[in-house]
From TrEMBL:
It is found in: Cell membrane; Membrane. GO terms for molecular function: G protein-coupled receptor activity; olfactory receptor activity. Keywords: Cell membrane, G-protein coupled receptor, Membrane, Olfaction, Receptor, Sensory transduction, Transducer, Transmembrane, Transmembrane helix. GO terms for cellular component: plasma membrane. InterPro entries: GPCR_Rhodpsn, GPCR_Rhodpsn_7TM, Olfact_rcpt, OR51/52/56-like. This is Olfactory receptor. It is a multi-pass membrane protein. Residues 43-294 form the G-protein coupled receptors family 1 profile domain. Gene3D superfamilies: Rhodopsin 7-helix transmembrane proteins. It holds the Pfam family 7tm_4. One of its GO terms (biological process) is cellular response to lipid. The chain crosses the membrane at residues 28-51, 63-88, 100-122, 143-165, 199-224, 236-256, 276-296.
Amino acid sequence: MSAVNDTKSNSAVFFLTGIPRQEDVHPWISIPFCLMYAISIVGNSVILFIIKTDPNLHEPMYIFLSMLAITDLGLLIATIPTILGIFLFNSRDISLNACFAQLFFIHTLQCMESSVLLLMSFDRFIAICNPLRYTSILTLQRVAKMGLVFVLRSVAVIFPLPFLLKRYQYCGANVLSHSYCLHQDVMKMACSDITVNNIYGLSVAISTMGLDSLLIFLSYVMIIKTVLSVASPMECLTALNTCVSHLCAVLLFYIPEIGLALIHRFGNSSSHLLQILLGYVYRLVPPLIHPIVYSVKSKHLRARIIRVFIK
């Protein structure tokens, strides 16, 4: 009997969702999606190229920015095949193993991006609250070690998810809510008790992105407290201005993430379209906006980009 069950599970196919009731215009909708992907990939690649080739930018702040660009590129590459497959070729089906692989990479890169945002907040905290010790605390070797630790953390906590999902049978229509696979979406398709996945998924979210967001919030409380206690109003604005780009990145990441998690767990059928649209915003907007925001706010990076394109 178990052999039969394994066969059903392994041969299951999931069906991805584009934009409901707009199938006839999917080829036209693919145009802005392709443009967003192209701009995001070029923008993040330019950021990486400039940081790598300019020795003056080999500082912790820019190294963290390059980590953010790498995770953004990874998320774009992980979602391109299925999102554009739906809108360009109306290819909605995805095999069980391919779906599990995609959700592993998406969730791992999400955890890594959350970790990078935490490291960037730590960088701003040290730069503003303890500037004299900045270079001694954030050495390049220490930055590399912190990055490696957070990569290993992300892989370790997400690695069990595909194996937990593979235990189940999938015997229904298996229509997912997005154009890509997510753990909280796939587990609802199982014809079994998903309590273990629910508990583990919630534990992972709390111990990674939940903890990271709390530490980011605390770092900004300390930053604001320090700035208000030692600086004039003009100096306060100058100091906080260095945090604007990071705050934009934090809000772009966590607001759609929290909204999507709440809709997945507590939403009803009327919120299905909102869930789909929020999923696209969450996946496509941050990688598009990050290079623009950091290029505008960082005069050194902006000047280097201008020199590259003028040449």
